[in-house]
Amino acid sequence: xxxxxxxxxxxxxxxxxxxxxxxxxxxxxxxxxxxxxxxxxxxxxxxxxxxxxxxxxxxxxxxxxxxxxxxxxxxxxxxxxxxxxxxxxxxxxxxxxxxxxxxxxxxxxxxxxxxxxxxxxxxxxxxxxxxxxxxxxxxxxxxxxxxxxxxxxxxxxxxxxxxxxxxxxxxxxxxxxxxxxxxxxxxxxxxxxxxxxxxxxxxxxxxxxxxxxxxxxxxxxxxxxxxxxxxxxxxxxxxxxxxxxxxxxxxxxxxxxxxxxxxxxxxxxxxx
Length: 272
What we know:
Elements: E1 3-8, H1 15-31, E2 39-44, H2 50-59, E3 76-79, H3 96-101, E4 106-109, H4 112-118, H5 122-134, E5 138-143, H6 147-151, H7 155-167, H8 172-175, E6 179-182, H9 197-211, E7 217-220, H10 229-233, E8 240-243, H11 250-262
Parallel strand pairs: 1-2, 1-8, 2-3, 3-4, 4-5, 5-6, 6-7
Helix pairs in contact: 1-2, 5-7, 7-9
């Protein structure tokens, strides 16, 4: 099983900082190829740094790989958002063809901050997933419930509604390219509290019953750190981690890659 281990920089890092991170990551993975054992790394910088990060990743890719920014690197490059239309009068937006042109191979969709602050809905996530797939990229669909929903014991219904709505009508071959990241809102951000393994078992049981073997991978994100990464990876159904601030330093990200590359997961019938 391949574990997807990635991070989004959110609205952090200047062009030079993002470029330095990418160059350092490429060099580290060349020097320590064992970090890639059973692991698919991905990073999602701000849109302003996409092309520069793609160039850094490609510059240190294996000889003979295609000379296309972002392609040929062992690190998959993502964009934090993209509009569902290919072009048009959408001031301030960026399209899937544009992020692909800058080197992105995947697109983050439906993060809780996008839903809360920018009006992202289940319907717009569906439109964006469809656009990303139409252009041959990988959708990274984020789902997760607020604390009030968790406290009422309604997590399963809430996250299934988000996932089913965004993925409605997709044929099996398209669904198989999707990544789903379960990120409970109460566990993310500077004020979030780390989830316990017990709290995550039911959501991943539910998501695994619905999507294991159908989507590319089910990831967990929310206050992930080197201290709890292994515990999170050993939860049945978890096939990767979407890491926040703990991976914003290169050393932090490399440590989580190390943990993922050496973790052994027991087989659980019907899950991951």
